[in-house]
Each structure stands twice: as structure tokens, then as C-alpha cells.
Amino acid sequence: NQLTHVTLTNYSKSEESRELIQKALLENDFMKHLEASQILTIMDCMYPTTLAQGCCVIQEGDDGSTVYVLEEGSVEVTKGEQKLCTIEPGKVFGELAILYNCTRTATVTEDVNCDKMTDRPVYSDGLRVIMQQSGPLKMQLY
Ligand code: CMP
Q: What is the ipTM metric for this complex?
């Protein structure tokens, strides 16, 4: 099995960031079914990056497997013309495409009503491996 040979890269981060990510993963309806060790692995693999102001983070219908945990600011989730929700810090987003192996289910943009720069979400490229190895999660999805 090729998957077992994928090397995951750990990114060191502050205790505060680790707690934020872990809490976000444990509060997410889908990710919380992962084993504790898998949550820790995903947390280790996530690394800080910034969302450029005014930029579209995720476009509905695109391919993509990046999962984000918002650290500051807020983002808006829309589908077509409809606004679905606002995502606040400490929340996971972008998890559905990889969990269901589908294209992005909605568009995520910076919240225009939030004057604070949207900053430092963290994301993981190793997540696909974890997802494919995850028995409990697979059961839940099928
Ligand atoms: P994904 O489909 O990968 O990319 C768009 C993201 O928007 C999706 O993952 C979820 O994280 C989020 N999203 C989609 N639909 C909703 C919804 N109804 N409520 C809240 N968040 C959503």
C-alpha cells in the first residue's frame, strides 16, 4: 500500500496554536470521529499561512483538499447567491471536499463586514492520508 510510505511533515507551532487546532478538529462534526492519534497527527502537519485580504479562499465546484482552521478574523460561506454562514476563529472549514471526495461544496471568502485582516489559518496536506486510513470515519461516510 503506497499510502503507508507517505511521509508527513511536522510543523512546530506555539502551544496556543496547537490547542486552537485540536479544539477546532474535535468540535467539527466530521473530524471529531477520528482517533485521538489521528487528530494529533493532523494538528502536527498543519502550518500557518495567510489569507490575502479580499481574496476568495475556496471556490465552489473547484477541486481541492486543503482543510483550514481559522485563527483570526472571519470568513463567509456562500452557495450561489445564498449566504450559508460566517465562520469564526477556531473553526474548521474546507473539510467536506476531502471527506466526501467531491468538489468544493461552497464558496468561502473573506468576511467583508469584518475589518480585521483575516490571518493565519492553518492547513494540512497530510490529511488525505489520514482520511484514507481512518476506519471509523469511512464507516460514517458510507
Ligand atoms: P468544502 O466543500 O471542502 O469547501 C467549502 C466549505 O464550506 C466546506 O468544505 C465546508 O467547510 C463549508 N460549508 C459548506 N456548506 C456549509 C454549510 N451549510 N454550513 C457551514 N459551512 C459549510
A: 0.98
Range 11-141 classified under CATH 3.50.50.60 = no
Beta-carbon contacts of 103 under 8 Å, excluding residues fewer than 6 positions away, are 60, 61, 62, 63, 64, 97
Take atom 9 of ligand 1 and give the residue whose Cα is closest: 94
Per-residue pLDDT tens over the stretch 84-109: 999 999 999 999 998 888 999 999 99
- Predicted confidence (pLDDT) per residue in 60-93, tens digit: 999 988 899 998 888 999 999 999 999 999 999 9
Does the CB atom of residue 106 touch ligand 1 within 6 A?
yes
Q: Is 99 in the pocket of ligand 1 (CB under 6 A)?
A: no
- d(CA 64, CA 70) in angstroms, rounded, equals 17
Q: Which of 86, 92, 93, 131 to mutate to test the pocket of ligand 1 (most atoms within 8 A of CB)?
A: 93
Question: Where in the chain are the domains?
Answer: 11-141
